[in-house]
Amino acid sequence: MPTNKPNAYLAAHRDENLAALFELLRIPTSIKDAPQDYNRCAEWLRDRLVASGFAAEILTTPDAPPYVFAEYHTSDTAPTVLLYGHYDVQPPDPLDEWTTEPYDPQVRDGKIFARGAADDKGPLFAHIIGIEALLQTIGLGVNLKVLFEGEEEIGSPHIESFLTEHREKLRADTLVISDTAFYASDLPSISVGLRGMMGVEIVCTGADRDVHSGVYGGLVANPANALARIIADMTDDTGRVTIDGFYDDIIPPSEDELNSWAQVEFDEQKRAADLGLDGFHGGQRGVDPLHRNWAHPTLDCSGISGGHAGPGVKTIIPARANAIITMRLVPGQNPDKIFAALQQFVADHTPRGITSEVTLHAAGRAALFPTDSPYAQAGAAAMQQAFGKAPAWVRCGASIPITEVFQRTMNLDPVMLSIGAPDDNVHSPNEKLDIDMLYKGAEMAAAFYQILAD
Amino acid sequence: MPTNKPNAYLAAHRDENLAALFELLRIPTSIKDAPQDYNRCAEWLRDRLVASGFAAEILTTPDAPPYVFAEYHTSDTAPTVLLYGHYDVQPPDPLDEWTTEPYDPQVRDGKIFARGAADDKGPLFAHIIGIEALLQTIGLGVNLKVLFEGEEEIGSPHIESFLTEHREKLRADTLVISDTAFYASDLPSISVGLRGMMGVEIVCTGADRDVHSGVYGGLVANPANALARIIADMTDDTGRVTIDGFYDDIIPPSEDELNSWAQVEFDEQKRAADLGLDGFHGGQRGVDPLHRNWAHPTLDCSGISGGHAGPGVKTIIPARANAIITMRLVPGQNPDKIFAALQQFVADHTPRGITSEVTLHAAGRAALFPTDSPYAQAGAAAMQQAFGKAPAWVRCGASIPITEVFQRTMNLDPVMLSIGAPDDNVHSPNEKLDIDMLYKGAEMAAAFYQILAD
């Protein structure tokens, strides 16, 4: 078997590339950090891409952290790939649960521990060095556009207007994103379905101040009790959501997809035990866990507050109670329609003496991506080549709102090439990425672009 | 009509008595103030009672602020009255809502503005000067024991052990308390029923940490949703409590009491408007407000908390949610039995995947006092004499836990002689007491002891 030149190049540059990644990981870019660090991070990425041979620039907007855009032109006939990644990270707190400092990357046991190691600085860097390995050896073979943003972790609030404004500049034949993890430690995967989400706040108000529960008990309607009932009424005893029309438009998974899911092992006991639970008892009764997580919508109270629930008893009827409801939506569900039905539901379930208000905080549709496109197939082949195992086509219970924005504004289905393990502590203390995973990810990236070039 | 000598004495000493009350009001005795101020206040009261002719002393205990005890012996055949009052006050905050300083009494518009003016330094002082007026003119005619405590506003946590320890010393034929207000500004009243109360906390727990509502949505059971359902299920659509046996032991009001309530005007629109409401829609449907407040038990969520309900959306399934439930109980209801039923209810309504815990924080039975005892009748006659109007026999939706402790430990029914108006801002900024109310209260006290002596 002939030497794979890009892989040989990667192997020869392991140490210097690791040192470079550490530089990137040292720049603090969570929402709690300073704007100048975001600028510094964007400049670092631009400079690296320029050094690699790209035409790279920083695009600024009034509201968002800087976007890094870079372009490498191979030929007018080669396919054009858009690579998306994000350089912002989750806030590192609680800091005292980190074994070593979040912004001081350390290697232990072959793994890089740092905030952003797996989400998403490590994976985007894997693409950069994979591309460099091609450029320094056999050539890239595709036209490549790179877009790195700095506010994915807060829901990419400005990506839609950015994509709309720069649609021509960003035009591509396909989109590749490495911002997901393997389905299991030994099972590479490509996500082809993400749930949508909706976050709403419900506020119930009663008297214009907290009142004495004795002096006014039996007289003043209680907004905390009213809110509890509204939330309780939103689901029935079997865990089904009772909001009018909630399930009407759902597009069920295809036969093919269902068949592929049957191949995926879902270890309920192990995953539940990781959270101190004896099993998973959320969602709709009588439905298997994978379906509940991938193909069923959910309705969760993510926060509730009202009156005095701290230490001690304050004998009041509170003036106000509020709750955050987050839903995960599945293909076919229309957030606008569901929000309208939810507003009606809350209005219908608000008792006399209470006023209620519903505010939409966030919404995004579920996304489904094809498995049979040449780009998805190239991704699968690249994964098999790098990791030695065919990837599973999986869905994901979570949402990556940008994917749906790319579909809607640019008509691009992402190829979600996973880099990372499911236990990488993404969004948690002690985030990590295995160094082998980093380099195999780089090999996968190189293979992906090479396959597309052929 | 012959001159009423005690009243003439009171009239002749108005100014010096007002100055003395101001001294008492200047001593800060809320839970946020210093122990030495409590001592100073107790000493002030003891000294005043000694000057009046009492044998007075300060009784200290390891845990409670000092108790003031005083005794005046008239004869072995005269009835013995125990007068209870409290010299502690509510914390004065929010300070910036006071027109003048809470501990710097000021007269405006014929009213004394100060923390404690109405609750309870003013009323207990009215008794002192009423007693003095008798002693200085026609004689007291009864044996009088006085007990003033300093922790009524925090629920008198040590009164039961104190009464038990000093049962012999405090033994009396009747108990008089002036720690309630007129039912309406022009309607003197005697409270003959107070609701009991129970404060419990319910904690629901799910996974051992907050988890992502996408990654785990449909899998992990949500303790906030579970708690909302438990609370919602505690009442039905008509506002009735569904806890097993909750209403079983209730002793309904007597025909006589119901007849007297029919005479009491309850201005729902006005009282509701004071709280920014168009009416009172709490409690059980189809029951009139006075019954809902006086003779019906209630179940209110006084506080609820779980997950993240602050600004912004955190898309989680929280690990934990908790709520404080306060109930007001009516005669016949047994807090022990109800707490046991509540524990069972919560256990029965806790879904799989959630654990729940119920903790009892506070409990007290409802109290009913006779209207036909000679002491209650003497109180009514004294009120009519001083205020020119027969008092209404009223209940109160709130609880004054000490009354039930006096009943239980000393077998004494209190005669609750109201001094003060319903809008005296008790527990609120700008607490006040009308100076006329103070002196009429003193006349009432004098008349009460005089009638008992006859």
What can you tell me about this protein's structure?
Two copies of one chain form a homodimer. Chain A has 454 residues and is of the alpha+beta class. Chain A contains 14 helices and 18 strands. In chain A, a hairpin with a 2-residue loop joins strand 4 and strand 5. Chain A is globular. The two termini of chain A are 19 Å apart. At the A-B interface, strand 9, strand 10, helix 7, helix 10 and strand 11 of A face strand 9, strand 10, helix 7, helix 10 and strand 11 of B. Strand 11 of chain A pairs antiparallel with strand 11 of chain B.
Question: Can you give me a brief rundown of this structure?
Answer:
The structure is a homodimer of 454-residue chains. Chain A is 34% helix and 22% strand.
**Structural class, from secondary structure content of chain A?**
alpha+beta
Domains of chain A (count) = 2
The CATH topology assignment of the largest domain in chain A is Aminopeptidase
| Name of the CATH architecture of the largest domain in chain A | 3-Layer(aba) Sandwich
Write the SSE topology.
The structure is a homodimer of 454-residue chains.
Chain A: H1 5-12, H2 14-26, H3 35-52, E1 55-59, E2 67-72, E3 80-86, E4 106-108, E5 111-113, H4 121-135, E6 143-149, H5 159-165, H6 167-170, E7 174-177, E8 189-194, E9 196-205, E10 211-212, H7 223-233, H8 255-262, H9 268-273, H10 289-294, E11 298-307, E12 316-317, E13 320-329, H11 335-348, E14 355-364, E15 367-368, H12 374-387, E16 392-396, H13 401-410, E17 414-416, E18 432-434, H14 435-453
Parallel strand pairs in A: 3-6, 3-7, 7-17, 8-16
Antiparallel strand pairs in A: 1-2, 2-6, 4-5, 5-18, 8-15, 9-13, 9-14, 10-12, 11-13
